[in-house]
Amino acid sequence: MERLRQFDYTILIATMALVGIGIVMIYSASSILAQQRFGDPFHFLKKQCLYALVGIVCMVIAMNVPCLWWRRLVYPLLLLSAVSLALVFVPGIGHKAGGAARWIRIGGVNLQPSEGAKLVLVLYLAYSLARKRERGTVHRFSTGLIPHMAIPGILMVLVLREPDLGTAITMGALTLTLMFVAGVRIRHLLLTALGALPLLYLQMKQFQWERIEQFLRYFPHPWDTPLREAYHIKQSCYALANGGLFGQGLGMGRQKLFFLPEPHTDFILSVLGEEWGFVGILVVCFLFLLVLISGARIALALKDPFGSLLAMGIVVMLGMQGAVNMAMTLGLLPTKGLPLPLVSYGGSSLVVSLTAIGILIHLSGHAQRETRP
Amino acid sequence: MEYLRPDEQEGMELWKGRFRWALVLIAVSFLVLGLRLWQLQILQGDRFCRLSDENRLRLRRIPFTRGIIFDRKGRILADNSPSFRLLGVPAEMRDVEAILRHLDGNLKLDKEEVLRKVKLARRRSPFRPIPLQEGLSWEEVAWVENHRLDLPGVWVEAEPRRFYPYGPLAAHLLGYVGEITKERLRKWKERGYRVGDRIGKRGLESRLEPFLRGRDGGLQVEVDAQGRQLMVLNEVDFQPGANVVLTLDVEIQRLAEEALGDRAGAVVVGDPRTGEILAMVSHPAFDPNLFSKGLPPETWKKLIRDPKHPLQNRVTMGLYPPGSTYKIVTAAAALEEGVVDFKTRLYCPGYYRMGSREFRCWKKSGHGWLRLRDALIQSCDVFFYQLGERLGVDRLAKYAWGFGLGSPTGFDPDEEKGGLVPTAEWKKKKFGSRWHPGETLSLAIGQGFNLVTPLQQFVLISAVANGGFIRTPRVVHHIESAQGIPLGPWGRYEIRRVPVKERTLAFLRDALRAAVENPRGTGQRARLPGVSVAGKTGTAQVVEVGEDRKSREELPYHKRDHAWFLCFAPVEAPRVAVVVLVEHGGHGGAVAAPIARKILQGYFQKYRKGEENLGV
To answer: Cβ neighbours of residue A251 under 8 Å, at least 6 residues apart?
Structure first.
């Protein structure tokens, strides 16, 4: 009982609020779509509730797993992650949707290994960088740079092959940020970034280039572009404009009626903006920042390099994904199919995010013990 | 190269300092996002709102075409023809009254009804297009297209509609299509059916629905305030349904329908060797095109309330007492069970007394001494009363079942009646009373409780013709994809043997031939020069046996006798079997036999020996 009081409950409460808002908005955004596709308006709602339940169980488990276990699990998890990313391409196990092979099907459940890979990447980088720091070798090219380029590189190439450019770039940015934070030389980081570019170029598909090119063309004024690719952005902008300051009211949005693509996943924020307005989005942003700031405080309070880096990694992972999704919704980045963590519909994303939050809460226990005199 | 190893504490500070930089980056990006949000939602909100009002996405359905139904010679029985309907999006028809005023006078439109529909849809789903008017003429379509600018939110859509070029020809067999019902929709949702879909409701349209149905395509278009197409976002082609080739022959079908004329009744023409149906008539019929258009409720009520039941397929669903045609079964049973042989002579004084009841022969003066063959030729009732008495009800039932009576033929599992072959046990169960031997006498001449469908009669006479094989009648020759690739055999066809020896069947064929050719035969009016015909007449009484027989004109229509005629030809090697039933038509020999004769005549003109196979 004593131990329970040591956790940081701000994160827990903010997280639960985000998941709750997500479930409400998913129902509002998808009920008509679900009625048409599955004959059941509650289809996505029911599934998301189930995912949330599984996620909460994972979170509670993660809250109680000692840090030592994570250290021991780093390499097995890395291997598991790489194998599951490769299984995506195996016919019979891999599951394709919309031209991309991003899922594996096990026991009737579709899993998206790239979601898990992000968390595993954070675990690995925190472990490896912390160890190199303790040994004082993080500055060196051979120990500070090479492994942290090679191992994330393998995962990234696998993700890029699916193809899932958005997740691959997120992973790359995550790696660079963590290396930067851990004290790898700026020179080396620039080198890594330069080294990654040709790799990215070679792996990228034609249509991905075209999409970026088009984005650069319509980005300044998407609403005047009669391009098919600007369509999503246009509809998203219309949704937000319809929302205004206070929104049209829950369930009253109309862009979700087949105007917006995937209103319950990537563009959930547009629906929220139309129904709850500017204020509604600010509330979601506030809750997000609450999680991030609490996480940052934990990271800064921790003395143990592994724990501290892990907390930082999770904060950066969630913050980056959130920011990218919002930027996409607001027409500041090309649409790449990244969900808003904790809010968007999607089982793998929700379960992984909640597990990460669980780890963060566990670390908050250490942080409070360490700061106590 | 040597690196300075920083002090542990100092390093910690460095790295946390760097983390602060990362945090600042995230904070800045959120700030940028917030500003952008402010710009989009507050500053430029009005502008976007207006733009979004003028900008609409429409999902336009490209409806599939239903599979075509051909006859055996490739003539089209069911096709698709374009039909135009006026659609409107309620939310975009801002001034409905003005639009309706504009439409009124140029289009045949029920203004109040449309206004009510639009107002209702406005509250429910204002962005979904609703049909305003079905079946627009070419002039109306041209008018709407020319006045597009005055009709915001309104446009014309072309939709393939089921079209039956021959109208009511073979209507019962083909069936019709109509809008899917709510109950059916609930069951078929997983199969991709949606509200407003047209599906096969009866006959082959219904049974072959999974084949005839294709898949819708779709067009995702962005339109402006005038409904003009700005750009196509996505397009998926439709898939046409599979085509069906029937064994039916339109010419024979028409011949049979003409021969029956405007009398209520049924005709089946087919090949006794294979069970293939060449013609299947049920009269009165209906025009299936009426259903494609969307039937007005008054017409529907009229069809349902018509005392002659035009929607009922009499061939498979009509139950009638078989009358004297049943003597074929009684004769076969008597020979097989040995209660008489070919030479046994029985006496007919014009009546048969059993206990206190007197059973009459149709010929009051009586037939005198007769053998079984003569009794069949002249259709002597008294002779068969005696056979019935000797056989008993249950032995008779055994042979009736053997000939396929008492259960559906398997031709149409959804819409087919099995008829009735009574037994002592059945009566006990049904009425709780004992079987009277007197009832067997009525049974033996096809009166009493027994009921048959015209299709069962076709199977029965085919079995006599083809040497004792009971075959499931078939009308679908094969099904092929729209590209002409055969999709394999369809349907369940069974063959079994009648429990009757070939010697008996040969005797029956000979006796039935004589019933047509003999100057005293009842089926003389089916006689055809140059072709040997075998047949059996039947006059099924509607009123109880024993009541005085009055002439046709004296009785009210619904009490008049049903006229039957079953036949096949040529007797030496039968190629065609015909069953004719005229409801309340009177005497089988006088009414039904001439109809069969006309059909046979036409058949032998069209199908010379060896030419009955598919295709020209």
So the answer is: A28, A275
Residue whose structure tokens are 């780890």:
A359
Phi, psi of B571 (to 5 degrees): -60, -35
Mutate which: A278, A282, A287, vs B, most B CBs within 10 A: A278
- Was domain B58-246 assigned CATH 3.90.1310.10? yes
Joined together, the tokens standing for residue B469 give: 């094989």
User: A333 to each of A168, A223, A327, A352, B361, how far by Cα in Å?
Assistant: 15, 15, 6, 24, 98
Using DSSP, state whether B55 is helix, strand or coil: coil
Residue B14 sits at the chain A interface (C-beta within 8 Å): yes
Going by C-alpha positions, the residue among B380, B384, B382, B377 that lies closest to residue B523 is B377
- Asked if A241 and B29 come within 8 Å (Cβ–Cβ), the reply is no
Task: Give bridge partners of residue B348 from the DSSP assignment.
Answer: B368
**CB contact set of B426 (below 8 Å; sequence gap of 6+):** none
Distance CA B445, CA B447 (A): 6
The tens digit of pLDDT for each residue in B571-608 reads 999 999 999 999 998 888 899 999 999 999 999 988 87
3-state DSSP call for residue B72? coil
Taking the C-alpha atoms of residue B130 and residue B442, their distance in angstroms, rounded to an integer, is 61
Which residues of chain B does A39 touch, with a Cβ-Cβ cutoff of 8 Å? 189-190
**Contact residues on chain A for B222, CB-CB shorter than 8 A:** 231
Print the domain residue range for A250. Answer: 3-371
Distance from CA of B141 to the nearest CA of A (A): 29
pLDDT digits (tens, 9 = 90+) for B98-118: 888 888 777 777 778 788 878
* SS3 state at B586: coil
Look at the alpha carbons of A354, A360, A362, A364 in this order and tell me if their dihedral is positive or negative. negative
Q: Tokens for A31, please give them.
A: 């009920």
- A54-58, A274-278, B403-407, range with the lowest pLDDT: A274-278
> To the nearest whole angstrom, how far is the Cα of B26 from the nearest Cα of chain A?
7
ipTM associated with this complex:
0.82
Q: Is B557 on the interface with A (CB under 8 A)?
A: no
> CA of A184: which chain B residue's CA is closest?
B15
Give the pLDDT confidence score for residue B486 in this predicted structure.
84
Residue whose C-alpha is closest to residue A144's, from A155, A158, A128: A128
Instruction: Count helices and strands (H / E) in chain B.
Output: 22, 22
Chain B residue nearest residue A36, CA to CA:
B194
**Contact between residue A326 and residue A340 where contact means Cβ atoms under 8 Å apart:** yes
Cα radius of gyration (chain A): 21
Q: Does domain B250-286+316-480+495-606 have CATH number 3.40.50.1010?
A: no
Instruction: Determine the Cα angle at A104 with ends A98 and A109, to 5°.
Output: 100
Token pair belonging to A123:
């675990």
Coil, helix or strand at residue A37: helix
Cα–Cα distance for residue pair B27/A72, rounded to 1 Å: 34
Please check whether the two domains, B58-246 and B250-286+316-480+495-606, share a CATH topology: no
Residue-wise pLDDT for A137-176, tens only, equals 777 777 777 888 888 888 988 888 887 888 888 888 889 8
* Chain A residues touching B189 at Cβ < 8 A: 39
Written as six digits, the tokens of B37 are: 């949000």
Taking residues B36-48, report their average pLDDT.
Answer: 74
Reply yes or no: is the peptide bond before residue A163 cis, omega within 30 of 0.
yes
Q: What is the pTM for the complete model shown?
A: 0.61
In chain A, the number of structural domains is: 1
CA distance A238 to chain B (A): 5
Q: Does the distance separating the beta carbons of A254 and B22 come in below 8 Å?
A: no
* Segments making up each domain of chain B, as ranges: 58-246, 250-286+316-480+495-606
A335-364 pLDDT tens trace: 777 889 999 988 899 999 999 999 999 988
For residue B5, the chain A residues in CB contact (below 8 A) are 136
